[in-house]
Amino acid sequence: MSWFQRVKEGIVTKTIDKKETPDGIWYQCSRCKKPILTKEFEENCWVCMHCDFHEKIGSDEYFSILFDYQNFTELYDSITSADPLNFIDSKPYPDRIRESMAKTELKDAVKVATGNMNGCKLVVACMDFSFIGGSMGSVVGEKISRAIDYGREHRIPVLVISKSGGARMMEAAFSLMQMAKTSAKLALLAKAGVPYISLLTDPTTGGVTASYAMLGDLNIAEPEALIGFAGPRVIKETIGKDLPKGFQRAEFLVEKGFLDYIVNRKDLKQNLTTLFSIIWDNKNK
């Protein structure tokens, strides 16, 4: 009997109210498109259980992965960008900064924190791509420099997690100066004998790659991370040739000797703990 005939003859079937699924319970993998419970996805360090895709995450997520009981102290959180060039493109630079702050709830494209990782002290500077593409401006250079100084003064190993589109064009030469500044600080850290490990994540490009991201005692990367100075599209257009398969991906760079090794995010904390226990004298902890 059709729905129209049932209604006409007064036949009514009680239906159960449809219950909507609350937002945020499920996550769909960006690569394989399979659904995953958000809670399980987070417990798996934001790595897909089906295809091992490493989703892009920010500093807060990395801190929760690395620091014991998610207990850490954030450093230099009051530093914000100025506008030394009175720069205006589609909007004034100060307006862009304020909008990014409101959207991301970040002060700039890097956070610095110190705490314990499996009982060992560590200072971490982690970049956030969501803040103007993780671009390196004067604040990023200053906070990373201070993180390096903190590690040197307190004799604590330093980890920098890079995720960046390169230098911040709105600060021009002020941004480029951060390459030399952070490199000089790392030279002092090396002279003091304090270890520095660089973790490159997707993407790490431009001036960040050309400075502190590639100056670690060990340079490691997450799987399939895009790493390079210029992007593959720009390189292809410049040389007029097709690029090798997997060009500028972490696996390709390890094969060519550009990186030391690749680490799965799920293994990152234990891997770093083992690594620091090997290269850092126990008496200095």
Task: Describe what this molecule looks like in 3D.
The chain is an alpha/beta fold and 285 residues long. It folds into two domains: 32 residues, no CATH class; 228 residues, 2-enoyl-CoA Hydratase, Chain A, domain 1 (Alpha-Beta Complex), CATH 3.90.226.10. It is 35% helix and 17% strand. Helix 5 runs parallel beside helix 6. The longest helix has 20 residues. The protein is globular.
β-sheet strand percentage: 15-25%
Count up the domains: 2
Major beta sheet, strand line-up: 3-4-5-6-7-8-9
CATH architecture classification of the largest domain? Alpha-Beta Complex
What is the overall silhouette? globular
Structure, briefly:
This protein is of the alpha/beta class and 285 residues long.
Defining key terms:
285 residues; alpha/beta; 2-enoyl-CoA Hydratase, Chain A, domain 1; 2 domains; seven-stranded mixed sheet; two-stranded antiparallel ribbon; 10 helices; 35% helix
Explain the layout of strands and helices.
Layout: H1 3-8, E1 26-28, E2 35-37, H2 38-43, H3 59-66, E3 72-75, H4 93-104, E4 110-117, E5 120-127, H5 138-154, E6 158-164, H6 172-191, E7 196-204, H7 206-209, E8 218-221, H8 232-239, H9 250-255, E9 261-262, H10 268-279
Parallel strand pairs: 5-6, 6-7, 7-8, 8-9
Antiparallel strand pairs: 1-2, 3-4, 4-5
